[in-house]
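Reviewer comment 2.1 asked that we show a complete input and output for one of the modelled complexes. We chose the cytidine-5'-monophosphate case, as it is the one discussed in the main text.
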Amino acid sequence: MSESSGFKIIAVDGGAATGKSSTSRAIAERLKLMHVDTGAHYRTLTYALLNAGADSAAPNAIPALLESLQLDTTIQGRSALLSINGHVPADAQIRSPEVNAKVSKFAALESVREFLFQYQRSQAQVARDLAEFTGLIMEGRDIGSIIFPNADFRFFLFADEATRAARRSNDGQTDSIAERDKRDSQRKTAPLVCPEGAIRVDTGPLPLESVVEHICAIITA
Ligand code: C5P
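Response of the prediction step:
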């Protein structure tokens, strides 16, 4: 994926509360990358589907609902946010207990993943077209395995369960991270895996700054 322009694609994967978002945002700031949180994509889509009356247990009705949703991108600082039918929901709306409880059920559906696949890949071109970005950092569960298997760098973040639970409760969120991880790892389509050849980073014992430093050093070496 590297080009003579130096444009870089960096994939960051890992389970819930392993530090993907804080780490990716800080790296984007330092290296002038466009940051894309694909967990937020699944959350935004789940929020829109729930508002449209969708039920993940009745997947046959979902493709017709998806057809009525228009996806676009809004740039906010270094982050590219998904808008649906011209609207970017507030963080509190996509991180509510209801979305936390349902998102991994919708994310396991093939129709939902197919719907986001091209959109997520297209974000590389969005970053290329904007002069302020030198590359793209995308975080999620299947970025290094499915979305950008040829990314210039692929990282897999992990941490012990106690640290992750503490991070979520510090965020003030009600979230069953172990349950979500289990669903995400066991689903048939695009399960959460450490992509082959990805660089594993244990974020449990390290402060955020050290994780960011470590990853930036690898990218800029
Ligand atoms: O990253 P975050 O915890 O916000 O992700 C919310 C959910 O979105 C995950 O639990 C997972 O079910 C889904 N997801 C996914 N693939 C991605 C990113 C997130 O299935 N690339």
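The radius of gyration is 17 Å. We note this here for comparison with the apo prediction described in Section 3.2.
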